[in-house]
Write a structure and sequence with these properties.
Number of strands of chain A: 4
Number of strands of chain B: 2
Distance between the termini of chain B: 82 Å
Largest sheet of chain B: 2 strands, antiparallel
Distance between the termini of chain A: 44 Å
Order of helices and strands of chain A: HHEEEEHHHHHHHHHHHHHHHHHHHHHHHH
Oligomer: heterodimer
Strand content of chain B: under 5%
Number of helices of chain A: 26
Radius of gyration of chain A: 24 Å
Number of helices of chain B: 26
Largest interface: A-B, 63 and 65 residues
Largest sheet of chain A: 2 strands, antiparallel
Shape of chain B: globular
Radius of gyration of chain B: 30 Å
Strand content of chain A: under 5%
Helix content of chain B: over 70%
Chain lengths: ~575, ~650
């Protein structure tokens, strides 16, 4: 019930908002606060309730597919936390938007609720088609909000945003359609099984089109063209939601859909990890040069998400909690920063870094809050950002010292641009008149609470990490039941049963390297250098490699799954 | 009160920080700040409570120390760390002077910051600093130490940029934080290397020591030493950042932009010595990697010498003291490099007293001269501010190693250990002694320029010169007593070895691993040579500056001519690195990003052209339209049929 409410009720709320006055933000904002608060409460209850799923309702059938599309929601730790980000940021965004976008607050709230519903759907969908439906549906309210409430260049920004992200996921649509035409249903398990029976070329093609969609959404270099302009032109409360919650859909897709479905080989993992790292460095360098405050925040956000994606593809054991903490920390801190920057823009009328300054003297409370949140974004130990960054660094260290060093460089650069940002906005001489509405107590305290939350999660990350059981047994049973139920063509039905077992294990482990293809000569060389980097002696390495080769030769399919695990054990 | 929980110690300053921060935030909107008496009392109360708890715990500490694990911090696969505290001989000494001097300086700041609008905010930061510093030295694992480590860096940033309306202060603060961040990444990577070696639980100091002893006991030295060396190097990079050693030393002179009590507390007595503390804490590891120890000795040596020479040319009274701090830290690192960890901590201890006294004295001088920091505009203050002058002269005698004063005992000990450290020993000793002479020269110059001769400032300002208020003088006098007597905790030639014995359970075993042959040189010779160096330096200073005409100050207080750039050579090196990063950022912004945009534009353009082409079908020819429609429907039907129908 909770899950249905989280996904469907925001749309209902959006419709109910129509009843309020268009001119008077007072009445509409009260209703909007109530709704948003209710959703926020529901998302907390959702985390507290642990893993849960709804009944799988048959929704419709796609031409060419063997099975139906289900309306089937499933909440696991990762999705539940992302839903919390989406509802929480929407709540604070609606609070700050009352003073920022006074004109036609009602329509703004309608858009935010529609966006929230779509985001919740994306994070909770257990059916691939349903996921894709919401994944695309997110773009539309966001684009309309940018076009309606954005800055000077809003038309161009909305257009770029909509077209770029929709085109980016077009190949995924085709690939998904092809995949479900082969699978029994569009649930995760059937997709994974169907994919394993495909030729390698088709597998790679499908994987690449999935990756592309998520890379555009995150965004990962070089598919970030839409990001800076959209984030900077969007109204600040919306930017906060876009960066804090919507951009997480990309990383979420990597973790919840790509890793369980696709067997990863070393080359794709390495490429993706390096793309993530390049994005991190690129974002940091661009932020260093940005002159527009919101662009700076956009690039900073890109850098952090790049680091998160690099962490995902380190595929280490610690990856999932590490990335989740990083995502939650980034969602809260980047969201808070965008909201504060929106208030600064409202007060001064500009977001040019060179025209801002001295706000700490004029509005000391705002200045303190701004500095406080910026320091939390620096990943000082004791904040959630530190736990996330350090554990991601730890995962990257598993891949070798160079990725960890690059990530370390990003942490230094992030200090450089963040301090420059703080200095330009709140310190130094005052350069502009403060004319607009100042920060209200409600805005200040809600953003302050976000900051305190970062400290709480930083000192006790177990709140987040304990919620993680991505696929528990019950859910897999349900999926297996649904997959088995299908009136599949006789011969294939028999094939499903035995092959489903390794598939299940792969998902339970979340360690997809285990189902990798047999190790090649190159993998051995990579492994050898990793071991050398970790300080194994010449003899030990030769021994280990020889063992692995022997195992590899004996039984390629089975042993290849165990080899990485054995190596991991050896690393300790 | 024997079973006072350990977490009481950091708790007091934390409460202080929260309370004072709340007061500062609530009152920030008003024209007039909160009552200074009330805020001031709170600001001294919390550090004092922490000091009292440390003293109570110190008396009842068992030989092996007190350990307590508070709760779990991070618990994920592959990585599990607890929040725990360790109170032993080493952390006891560090905590005693951190909280003690912290309390005194909080009292002093009540006078120094009088009338400042950010009064409450200042003390909130000071309390946050004390909290972080206590966590740094009290923690039982590297990760929690790192929390304090970055925490003190953050407070240093906040306090350097305390007067943030001046953009130069902000730049100095940014520089301090970023340079420290570079070092901190070294610390982080060091932790990762250790994790690779033995999992996350060896981040705990006890577990790390046990692990290293086990490995060494099993004789697996060759396998582990290379990795340990990398880890050691990474940690040492972290230390060079925090303790301002070559190559990351440039931030400390700039950090003098902050209020003077901050310079005394953070940038002289406590925070900058945390690098030395870390080396002593990891002594079991460092003695196994002699290569890194050699690097540490050389870096310490070069830094000590370099900073002393640079100190000769400064005109700003606080900058002289800043370079002097860097130079003294160099001595401590030299000592740690020859595995004399107890001697290095002893110098940390004595240095905290005399350098804090010097800074507070300098603060009192600046206060009485209404903010003037240029020594060329001072002079003859001995008669006008006699107490300040006496305090500074006692501390001066301590820093140059005049017999009987605190610095004499600790510096003498370091030089002695350097001499006995092996074949290179005599060279290290000679370099240390030469640096001691230079130290006496530049410190003598400071004293002569400030207190002797005649006043060189303007006539109007002369009338306003006044002695500091009592709440500033009291801490200075206490610290001056420390500067005189702190050395008697370990007066080797008098047979007092209290300090050595209290540190022995922590670093004794490690130092025994690298046991150097006892060279039979009598302690008297060392003491005599040390005294000679101090006297020689004082003599040179008096001869050169005592009677000389001091050139009138013009413009900035930075050294003039070639020396301005020459002394800041490392700034130049850092400048090159920053330029390179900026150049790369420029390329990324102007080339790579433009290329991406071009590709985007190209795709968009092609789509538009194709669209225009397709638009030509949109003509008013009914028959053609119908034909195309039928073809389209046919194609759809074929596709549906081929893929299995509509079910």
């Amino acid at each position: 019930m909770l899950l249905h409410l989280l996904v469907l009720a925001p749309f209902v709320a959006a419709i109910l908002m129509v009843a309020t006055s268009k001119e008077d933000p007072k009445s509409s904002s009260r209703l909007a606060f109530l709704f948003a608060l209710a959703f926020f409460g529901m998302s907390i209850a959702n985390i507290a309730a642990g893993n849960q799923a709804t009944e799988a309702y048959e929704w419709f059938r796609i031409p060419g597919a063997k099975g139906p599309v289900y309306y089937y929601l499933y909440s696991h730790g990762l999705g539940a936390w992302m839903v919390l980000l989406s509802t929480g940021l929407s709540l604070v965004a609606l609070i700050t938007a009352r003073n920022t976008t006074c004109k036609n607050y009602r329509n703004f709230a309608i858009g935010i609720f529609a966006l929230m519903g779509a985001m919740n759907g994306t994070f909770l969908a257990a059916d691939a088609v349903l996921f894709f439906f919401f994944f695309e549906a997110m773009v539309i309210p966001a684009a309309i909000l940018i076009a309606g409430f954005g800055g000077k260049d809003r038309a161009k920004a909305a257009m770029t945003f909509a077209i770029y992200t929709l085109v980016g996921s077009a190949p995924m649509m085709v690939a998904l359609w092809y995949l479900i035409s082969q699978a029994d249903s569009s649930l995760l398990l059937s997709l994974a099984i169907a994919l394993q029976n495909m030729p390698e070329g088709a597998q790679t093609a499908i994987l690449v089109s999935f990756l592309l969609a998520f890379m555009v959404k995150t965004p990962i270099f070089p598919f970030h063209g839409w990001q800076a302009i959209s984030y900077s032109e969007a109204p600040a409360p919306l930017s906060a939601i876009l960066t804090g919650a919507m951009s997480k859909a990309g990383v979420f897709g990597f973790i919840a859909w790509i890793l369980p479905i696709f067997p990863m080989n070393m080359s794709i993992v390495t490429v993706m990890m390096w793309l993530g790292l390049v994005t991190a460095v690129y974002g940091a360098l661009m932020a260093l040069r940005a002159t527009d405050a919101k662009k700076l925040l956009a690039f900073s956000s890109m850098g952090h998400l790049g680091l998160a994606v690099a962490g995902v593809f380190s595929l280490s054991e610690a990856m999932l909690p590490a990335v989740l903490v990083l995502l939650v920390a980034h969602g809260i801190s980047a969201g808070a920063q965008f909201l504060l920057m929106g208030i600064a823009e409202r007060m001064t009328g500009t977001r040019e870094l060179d025209k801002l300054g001295g706000l700490a003297r004029v509005t000391p409370v705002f200045g303190s809050l701004f500095g406080f949140v910026a320091i939390l974004a620096l990943a000082i130990p004791g904040t959630a950002g530190f736990v996330g960054e350090f554990t991601v660094l730890l995962s990257l260290w598993d891949m070798g010292p160079v990725p960890a060093l690059v990530a370390g460089l990003c942490i230094i650069l992030s200090a450089a641009y963040m301090l420059r940002f703080v200095q330009k906005v709140i310190f130094g001489e005052q350069k502009c008149e403060v004319a607009g509405t100042r920060m209200t107590a409600l805005e200040g305290s809600s953003i302050g609470i976000m900051g305190v939350l970062l400290l709480v999660f930083g000192m006790h990350p177990a709140f987040i990490t304990n919620a993680l059981h991505l696929f528990d047994e019950q859910a897999i049973e349900t999926m297996a039941k649904l997959a088995g139920e299908k009136p599949a063509a006789g011969a294939e039905g028999e094939e499903v049963a035995p092959s489903s077992i390794p598939g299940v294990e792969a998902e339970v482990d979340e360690n997809v390297a285990d189902v990798a293809v047999p190790m090649t000569e190159e993998d051995f060389r990579q492994l050898d250098s990793n071991l050398a980097a970790n300080g194994f002696s010449e003899e030990e390495r030769a021994n280990l490699i020889a063992q692995l080769k022997a195992m590899n030769a004996e039984d390629s399919a089975e042993t290849a799954a165990e080899a990485p695990a054995a190596v991991e054990g050896g690393n300790k | 009160m024997t079973n006072l929980p350990l977490w009481f110690i950091p708790l007091f300053p934390l409460i202080g920080c929260i309370v004072l921060g709340a007061i500062a935030l609530i009152s920030s909107g008003e024209k007039k700040g909160p009552s200074e008496g009330f805020v001031g009392a709170l600001s001294v109360l919390f550090p004092a409570l922490a000091f009292v708890s440390v003293v109570l715990l110190s008396f009842n500490m068992p030989e092996g120390g007190i350990r307590s694990t508070l709760c779990n911090w991070i618990d994920i696969p592959m990585f599990k760390v607890d929040i725990g505290f360790l109170f032993d001989g080493l952390s006891r000494i560090m905590l005693l002077f951190v909280t003690g001097i912290g309390t005194l300086i909080a009292l002093y700041s009540n006078g120094y910051m009088h009338g400042d609008r950010g009064f409450a905010r200042f003390f909130a930061y000071i309390n946050l600093f004390l909290f972080s510093m206590i966590v740094l030295v009290l923690s039982d694992s590297l990760l929690l130490t790192f929390l304090g480590w970055e925490g003190v860096g953050l407070c240093s940033y906040l306090l350097i940029g305390f007067w943030n309306h001046d953009i130069n202060n902000c730049k100095a603060a940014n520089k301090a934080f970023i340079v420290n961040r570079v070092g901190d990444i070294g610390f982080l990577l060091g932790m990762l290397v250790l994790c690779t070696l033995g999992g996350s639980n060896i981040l705990n100091y006890d577990a790390l020591n046990a692990f290293i002893n086990m490995i060494m006991g099993a004789g697996n030295v060759e396998i582990v030493v290379p990795i340990l060396s990398i880890a050691g190097l990474c940690f040492f990079i972290g230390c060079t950042g925090k303790s301002a050693q070559i190559p990351l030393l440039t931030w400390l002179p700039d950090a003098m932009a902050g209020p003077t009590p901050v310079s005394a507390l953070i940038h002289a007595a406590t925070m900058v010595t945390s690098g030395v503390y870390l080396l002593a804490r990891l002594s079991t590891m460092f003695v196994q990697i002699p290569l890194i120890l050699d690097i540490i000795t050389w870096v310490g040596l070069l830094t000590a010498f370099w900073a002393a020479v640079a100190g000769l040319f400064q005109n700003d009274i606080k900058k002289v003291l800043a370079y002097s701090t860097i130079s003294q830290l160099g001595y401590m690192f030299m000592a740690a490099g020859v595995a004399a960890f107890d001697a290095s901590i002893f110098h940390v201890f004595t240095h905290a007293f005399f350098k804090a006294a010097l800074f507070l004295g300098a603060g009192a001088v600046i206060h009485s001269l209404a903010g003037e920091q240029d020594m060329r505009k001072m002079g003859g203050l001995l008669k006008k501010t006699p107490v300040t002058a006496c305090v500074m002269i006692f501390a001066f005698l301590a820093i140059i190693g005049f017999p009987g004063f605190a610095g004499f005992w600790s510096k003498d000990l370091i030089l002695e250990r350097l001499y006995m450290s092996g074949p290179m020993g005599p060279f290290f000793y000679a370099a240390g002694l030469l640096t001691a002479v230079i130290t006496a020269v530049y410190m003598g110059r400071l004293i002569v320029l400030t207190f002797f001769g005649s006043y060189r400032g303007s006539k109007e300002s002369e009338e306003h010169i006044h002695e500091a208020p009592a709440c500033m003088l009291f801490p200075m006098v206490v610290l001056a007593f420390g500067a005189i007597f702190a050395g008697y905790f370990w007066a080797d030639s008098m047979g007092i070895k209290f300090f050595e014995e209290s540190l022995a359970p922590v670093v004794g075993a490690a130092q025994a691993v690298l046991h150097h042959s006892e060279a039979h040189v009598s302690a008297g010779v060392f003491a005599g040579l040390g005294t000679l160096a101090a006297l020689l330096g004082m003599g040179i200073a008096w001869a050169k500056y005592g009677k000389a005409r001091i050139p009138a100050a013009k413009g900035s207080s930075a050294p003039q001519g070639k020396m301005a750039t020459w002394t800041f050579f490392w700034d130049y090196v850092h400048g090159v690195v920053i330029t390179v990063v900026n150049a790369i950022a420029w390329v990324v912004d102007n080339c790579v990003d433009k290329l991406v945009q071009f590709a985007q534009w190209l795709v968009g353009g092609i789509a538009e052209i194709l669209g225009d082409g397709a638009a030509s079908f949109q003509v008013r020819k009914v028959r053609l339209q119908i034909a195309l429609s039928i073809a389209g429907v046919a194609a759809l039907v074929i596709v549906v049929l081929l893929t299995g129908g509509l079910i």
